[in-house]
Amino acid sequence: MTDLLFLGIDGGGTKCRARLRDAKGTLLGEGTGGPSNIRLDPELVWNSLLTACREALAQAGLHEDDLKRIHAGMGAAGAGQTSAVERLLSRGHPFASFEIETDAHTAWLGAFKGGDGAILIVGTGSCGYGGTSGQCHYVGGWGYEISDEGSGAAIGRELLRRCIWAHDGRIAATPLSDAVLAEFKNDLEILVDWVGKARPADYGRYAPLVLQHAERRDPLGIAIVEDAAAGLSAIGMRLLDLGAPAICLFGGLSEPLRPWLSPPVQRTIAEPMADALDGAILLARMALQEGRP
Amino acid sequence: MTDLLFLGIDGGGTKCRARLRDAKGTLLGEGTGGPSNIRLDPELVWNSLLTACREALAQAGLHEDDLKRIHAGMGAAGAGQTSAVERLLSRGHPFASFEIETDAHTAWLGAFKGGDGAILIVGTGSCGYGGTSGQCHYVGGWGYEISDEGSGAAIGRELLRRCIWAHDGRIAATPLSDAVLAEFKNDLEILVDWVGKARPADYGRYAPLVLQHAERRDPLGIAIVEDAAAGLSAIGMRLLDLGAPAICLFGGLSEPLRPWLSPPVQRTIAEPMADALDGAILLARMALQEGRP
């Protein structure tokens, strides 16, 4: 077992991270690469992935040849889509074994080391995941258009909707609506043109502004943040109903939104035992133990 | 003045209608043509428009030569966008005069013959428009993504969002959520694939189903319809605040949603004096009186 190498990979839409450990768990090296949401072009994803992996190998004083000793686990955005995983693996892989799961699953594995519990990810999107006795469920996380309550994208889009209300006179203007409408020269045609080209991350960039204004007691900011927190709390409460004894928060918006969450959810928040990269390493170890290829 | 001809055109996304009257207001003929949202290809729009116009001319026993005697007015979806109007008129027009306004403006002109009042259009989209002393304002109507509260598209999208809640167990399932989820084989991946391709009209096709279930006291149906009606009522109340003494409803969803509107809005609902085609004819007459080209 001492010759075994375990590689954990965290594949996101903007970058890819890798961590190499030996069988005893000793850290051997880390690396980073480019975008690796596995819905992207497989060529691009493999390039990002191997860049991160080779950097980790080099830090460990290991070589290309050692790739075949590696048992790899990857948590990747987009891995819920079976066809995307199959496309990525259609030309094989250089590892001794390679297990792919969603980024939610590896974050959860790291957070609870496979034990009972749930995670709530809040960034540009939002997603709940967890359960008991290894039986996990997703709650939300089906994308910006009809899901992802409380996410940065949802907050930004709701902001622009309510700025139109303020512009029309349907609600009172506030410093927040004034600031946003001024960005668009108080011209809703310009705003609508922007919306026509906006992606979830573009909406999400407004979330910090909304949070700032809410902290300053801007009524519009407070209304939007309260709605977002209510949506997230509903996800959290469902995770608790499914039997999770604790919830770990992940994602760039989880810390600022945490004090706004419903007390029954807040009381269950725990620190993760390990991060998603170690969750991915655990994924690889579990697959090896279970004798999967 | 007796030789003058007035043509009213109603240009929508799916079809174009035209009505021809003489200076005394006598109906001479009507016609229909294809899609004429003026954001579409100008060639296509002119084709739809002239098809409708020639049919009206033929009914009146008139000919191609008479086009140049016609003072035309058109209310068109998309006419709020100046560049689209300019593109349509870039190669001139065959009429003695041609005035283009939004479909909301001609509906309003018809409804109140240019007097004080407001309209509320509720179809796939939603929009409020009206005012006093000829000073009109839009309230809402900035599109499905960040506006159009209470519209068919908004109702359908909210339905799918809440069906995910029911699927996750965040809310109780109801006959409505069961029926919709069954359409997608209870598989959220199939639902999300559908959403990826859905246009506002696709979401809007769920509105009648939601209304049916609400009338049967389905809790999910009621919650969605109440939200939609609250959004529309907020638009209506703003129109009243702007001085409109009455509101005329237009669009396929306005009748079923009417009983759900807030009583202060419901009490002001009036029947339109004339339709949008006669509003477009009035637009042409007013332009001629004011000596516009």
TrEMBL record, chains A, B:
<dbReference type="InterPro" id="IPR002731">
    <property type="entry name" value="ATPase_BadF"/>
</dbReference>
<keyword id="KW-0808">Transferase</keyword>
<dbReference type="InterPro" id="IPR043129">
    <property type="entry name" value="ATPase_NBD"/>
</dbReference>
<dbReference type="Pfam" id="PF01869">
    <property type="entry name" value="BcrAD_BadFG"/>
</dbReference>
<protein>
    <submittedName>
        <fullName>N-acetylglucosamine kinase</fullName>
    </submittedName>
</protein>
<feature type="domain" description="ATPase BadF/BadG/BcrA/BcrD type">
    <location>
        <begin position="7"/>
        <end position="282"/>
    </location>
</feature>
<dbReference type="InterPro" id="IPR052519">
    <property type="entry name" value="Euk-type_GlcNAc_Kinase"/>
</dbReference>
<keyword id="KW-0418">Kinase</keyword>
<dbReference type="GO" id="GO:0016301">
    <property type="term" value="F:kinase activity"/>
</dbReference>
